[in-house]
């Protein structure tokens, strides 16, 4: 609580300073206010702070005059220097487009998917392809195309419709199970109509397909041939380019553990790849397709086995 003492009653009060006490330590007069034994000194405002305020106010006024500053209606004051970051951004973008159009035009024809481009053109295109992937694909397929749960790996040689750049371009354009009329379709049906014991046997068989030394049961083999081989191929090797993945490698989209496989067999799966036609140009789609087709290096394929 604020406790004030009448300055006239303060010991050591100086009548020449309005009966205010002089602090014996600092030599400053007090204001006559006291809080819990702490007396307030009547000190001058620091000059450095005053000068700082003056300088900042002067700078603000100069900035208002020289730079874009005050909005009014649908516009704003341009400033005497005419600096505009929006205009500069558009100019920089147009400059970037003009510099890359020379080599990007070579990707605007679908023939490039069959013939490819020379090394010099690809050196210029590599950074743009990296950016295209990062901006449009990495959120689902991973930063280095390593895949995520529910999204296939793209840095190996196991492709649902083949690794040919033309087929990759088609998938990018129209998507998988998307709303586009030319979309690809791929669906794992639910096998909940199978007996529980048969589903368990089939689940264990599929799980063991990844392990070369695992013992595969005859009943599981029969169930697989009757219900799965038509799409996934004999012994789950895939490669039929019908949208059904291989079940023998580390690229299984929804997991190859017991629980995941059991869920997939009982309930089925249906992923969605959106159509990018209309959002990416033809040249960008072709560039991205060639980029993805090059990711399946021998090293990546060996590590995926």
From TrEMBL:
GO cellular component terms, semicolon-separated: plasma membrane
NCBIfam families: ccoP
MF-aspect GO terms: electron transfer activity; heme binding; iron ion binding; oxidoreductase activity
Keywords per UniProt: Cell inner membrane, Cell membrane, Electron transport, Heme, Hydrogen ion transport, Ion transport, Iron, Membrane, Metal-binding, Oxidoreductase, Plasmid, Repeat, Respiratory chain, Transmembrane, Transmembrane helix, Transport
UniProt family annotation: Belongs to the CcoP / FixP family.
GO BP annotation list: oxidative phosphorylation; proton transmembrane transport
Function: C-type cytochrome. Part of the cbb3-type cytochrome c oxidase complex. FixP subunit is required for transferring electrons from donor cytochrome c via its heme groups to FixO subunit. From there, electrons are shuttled to the catalytic binuclear center of FixN subunit where oxygen reduction takes place. The complex also functions as a proton pump.
Ranges that cross the membrane: 48-70
Protein name per UniProt: Cbb3-type cytochrome c oxidase subunit
Residues of the Cytochrome c domain: 124-210, 215-296
Ligand binding (heme c 2): 188, 228, 231-232
Tree of life domain: Bacteria
Region (Disordered): 1-26
Coiled-coil ranges (or none): none
Positions contributing to heme c 1 binding: 137, 140-141, 273
Quaternary assembly: Component of the cbb3-type cytochrome c oxidase at least composed of FixN, FixO, FixQ and FixP.
Main subcellular location: membrane
Bias-annotated ranges (Basic and acidic residues): 1-23
Keyword Coiled coil listed: no
Cofactor binding description: Binds 2 heme C groups per subunit.
The protein's annotated pathway: Energy metabolism; oxidative phosphorylation
Source organism phylogeny: Bacteria, Pseudomonadati, Pseudomonadota, Alphaproteobacteria, Hyphomicrobiales
Cofactor(s) the protein needs: heme c
Subcellular location field: Cell inner membrane
UniProt-listed PROSITE patterns: CYTC (PS51007)
Pfam family, one: FixP_N
């Amino acid at each position: 609580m604020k406790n004030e003492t009448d300055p006239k009653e303060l010991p050591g009060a100086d009548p020449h300073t309005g009966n205010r006490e002089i602090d014996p330590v600092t030599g400053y007069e007090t204001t006559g206010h006291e809080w819990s034994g702490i007396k307030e000194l009547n000190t001058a405002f620091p000059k450095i702070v005053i000068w700082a305020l003056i300088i900042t106010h002067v700078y603000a006024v100069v900035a208002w005059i020289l730079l874009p500053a005050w909005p009014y209606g649908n516009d704003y004051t341009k400033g005497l220097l005419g600096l505009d970051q929006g205009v500069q951004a558009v100019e920089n973008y147009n400059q970037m487009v003009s510099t890359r159009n020379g080599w990007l035009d070579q990707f605007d024809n679908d023939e490039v998917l069959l013939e490819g481009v020379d090394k010099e053109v690809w050196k210029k295109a590599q950074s743009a392809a990296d950016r295209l992937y990062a901006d449009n694909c990495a959120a689902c397929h991973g930063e280095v195309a390593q895949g995520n749960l529910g999204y296939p790996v793209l840095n190996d040689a196991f492709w649902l419709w083949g690794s040919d750049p033309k087929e990759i371009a088609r998938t990018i354009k129209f998507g998988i199970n998307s709303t586009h009329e030319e979309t690809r379709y791929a669906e794992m049906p639910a096998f909940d109509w199978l007996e529980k014991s048969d589903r368990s046997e089939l689940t264990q068989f599929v799980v063991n397909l990844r392990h070369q030394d695992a013992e595969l049961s005859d009943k599981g083999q029969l169930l697989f041939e009757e219900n799965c081989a038509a799409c996934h191929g004999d012994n789950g090797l895939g490669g039929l380019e019908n949208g059904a993945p291989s079940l023998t490698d580390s690229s299984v989209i929804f997991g190859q553990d017991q629980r995941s496989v059991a869920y997939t067999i009982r309930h089925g799966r249906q992923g969605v790849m959106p159509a990018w036609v209309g959002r990416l140009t033809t040249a960008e789609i072709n560039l991205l397709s060639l980029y993805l087709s090059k990711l399946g290096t021998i090293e990546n394929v060996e590590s995926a086995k």
